[in-house]
Each structure stands twice: as structure tokens, then as C-alpha cells.
Model the fold of this input.
Amino acid sequence: MRPAEVHLIAAARPNFMKVAPAYHALRRQSWCRPVLVHTGQHYDEQMSAAFLRDLELPQPDIHLGVGSGSHAEQTAKVMVAYEKVCLERPPTWVIVVGDVNSTMACTLAAKKLCLPVAHLEAGLRSRDRTMPEEINGIVTDAISDLLWTPSPDGDANLLAEGVPAARIERIGNIMIDSYKLMRPRIEATRTRERFALAARGYAVVTLHRPANVDQPGTLKPLLHALATVASCLPLVFPMHPRTRSRIKEFGLEGILAATPTIHLCEPLGYVDFMGLVREAGMVLTDSGGVQEETTYLGIPCLTLRDTTERPVTVSEGSNRLIKLHELREAVAAAQAAGPRGRKPDLWDGRTAERLSASLRRHLEAARADRRAVAG
Ligand code: UD1
Ligand code: UDP
Done:
């Protein structure tokens, strides 16, 4: 029998470390041919190509090249381009990951063509519908056939939304698979030495949420607060392109330039970034994935958000949600407390293996159904 063609959809930075372990696991299977589809939502070298290299992924088999745009523009461009791909050569299954615009767009396009879709990292909810990711997650989960969750809260959220239990499978957190796959290279990097910093003697900062960076009235006090923290703890701040362009647009470069202990740099590749985080004293962030990676590593994480779609990082891990006015006190408390938390269940580096076994079961069940219908 011909191997089943399975599309793996990658689009933006946080997708690559979810797609890579799945791609590598499926590539080893005789029953499956993974096809890497890149929508082009992220396109800068340091937001895309660097991750393909670091995570040992090939050049995408299919590149949709959609680029940036408003939410509707970007979503629509991905839908139009991906529909064409699916019409030309329909895949047997589609795997989408995370909660970016391309995740929802590819799911909509595929489901309208009645193609089966599996969502990896399903069920995560912040309950904040002003976040585009929340809308993307709700829509994707409502129409996907198979929902792979990373933690029990994901299952509970889906059940509460009326998703049948038979569609939900908890397979764990695939981000940890990427970390484990790349661990020898991550541990060999000395990214902090580039900035002449001592192990645990600095914090890593990542910020890109529209709620933090899109309004000058929010971004300006945030940068001032970072400058205050940097007077007692050096910061390394690999800057997301959205944040860089907002700082420029609002004329706020001076705040950072006046603080020599804030080390600004381009977004880092996966291996360099994880090497920097691994040796940090703490992380200040609004990222989703970074909350999980710090929990896995036991590195204190202060998340500048009101909500999180990853509550186990707070209840079990090293994450704390803070408001800006709490930042200084929270940094001092994290410095005093040091590493903390435990690794949640199934964050064990074997999620891709469970994903592959699950997909195979579903493919075989569908084949058995078709044989039964054919008589
Ligand atoms: C997107 C995701 C967000 C995710 C984040 C990870 C949505 C709605 N948002 O947010 O969930 O947390 O990625 O990083 O899908 N830009 C560049 N170069 C690039 C990519 C973007 O310069 O390679 C700039 C463009 O000006 C663009 C802006 O960043 O307009 C925002 O990019 P976009 O993909 O729309 O949203 P993100 O903020 O990156
Ligand atoms: N990351 C990286 N370099 C950076 C910043 C982030 O390699 O400079 C990685 C890191 O593994 C993180 C992932 O990108 O978990 C997620 O990226 P981002 O914060 O952009 O997206 P989110 O998880 O918030 O959707």
C-alpha cells in the first residue's frame, strides 16, 4: 500500500519546534510520508530559516509565501493558497499545530474539502477573547477531527466546549521533544558568553504580544520598568520584529539605548536561545512557548500577562503571572528563590512517538471502514 501523505503545517516561529519532532518521527515510518508545508507567515531569516536549520528540518516541500497582513488578509491568503494545494493533491491527513492565524486558516480550508485534520496542542484556553490566538484555538478545535492535548486542562476545556471525548487524546507536550532532541547542541552553546555574562547572572526578555507592545502608553512604561530591573540584573533582549517596529514607530529607542545592561539582539535561533535560557537566572516574557520551556528547565519565569492558556506552568511549574507594577518585587523574589517547580506529566520527550502511534491507529481505522463499506 502507498504511504499516506500527511501535511505538517508550519507558519510562524513557535510552530517549528512543534512540527520538527513530529516530522522526524513520521519520516521513520513506512506507512507515512510527511510533507512539510510552510505558509510563510513568518519569513525573516531569524524567524523561519534559522529554525529549519536548527531543528534539522528540510526545505519545505510546499511554500505558500503569504507573508504579513491584517488578520483577515493573512487568514484569507493562507486559505486561498492552501485550498489550491489540497485540491491539486489532497493529503490523507493534515496536522496543524499551535494557535496562529495559519493554524486556523489551514484547518478551515482542509475541513471545507472534508479532509481529516489533527490539531497538535489542542484545548489551550486563556479565556481572553481579545487575543487572536484564543479565537484561532476555539475555531480550530471545534472543527478538527483529532485533538492532541498537552495537559489535562486541555481535555477539560474541550469537553466543556462539547467536543466528544472520542476525539481527544492527551499525548503530552511536543516542545519538550524538541528540547531533548537538540539537548547536546543546546548544552554545548555558550550564548551568554557573547554578552560577557555569568551563568544565572542575567535574565532573558522576550515580548511580542499586541497587548504589551502595540500601544505607546503600555510599551513606554514597560521599557522603563525593564531599565529599572536592568540596574540590578543584566537583561538579554532578543527582539521580535513586531516589537522592534513598534519601538521605532513610537520613538522609544532612547530608553533602551540609555541602559547598557540591556543587551539587545536580533531574535535568536532555537539552539542559541535555549542555551541562553538554560543558563539564565530567570526569564521575563509574554511568550506562550517560553512559559513551557522554563517550566521544563525549572527556571523562574515572570509572565507579563493577565492570563495564561498554559495554567500547569503556574500550578506545577516555575511560572508566575505578574502585572507591570509587580515586576521589581517579583524579580527580587525570583532571585531569592532560584529554580523551582516540577515537570508536568507527559512532558517527557516522547510526545512525537505517541503522536505517530495515534495517527497510525486512525489511518488503519479509516482503511478498515473503507474496506467494510466496499464490502
Ligand atoms: C504571531 C502569532 C502569535 C505568535 C507569534 C510568535 C497570530 C495572530 N499571531 O504573532 O500567536 O505568538 O507569531 O512569534 O498568528 N514580521 C516581520 N518578519 C517576520 C514576521 C513578522 O517583520 O518574519 C513583522 C511584520 O511587521 C508583521 C508583524 O511582525 O506585520 C507581526 O507578524 P504576525 O505574524 O502577523 O504576528 P506576530 O506578532 O508575529
Ligand atoms: N524562541 C527562539 N528565539 C527567540 C525567541 C523565542 O528560538 O529569540 C523560541 C522559543 O523556543 C519559544 C518559541 O520560539 O518557545 C516561541 O516563540 P514565540 O514567543 O514567538 O511564540 P509563542 O510561543 O508566544 O506563540
Summary: The radius of gyration is 21 Å.
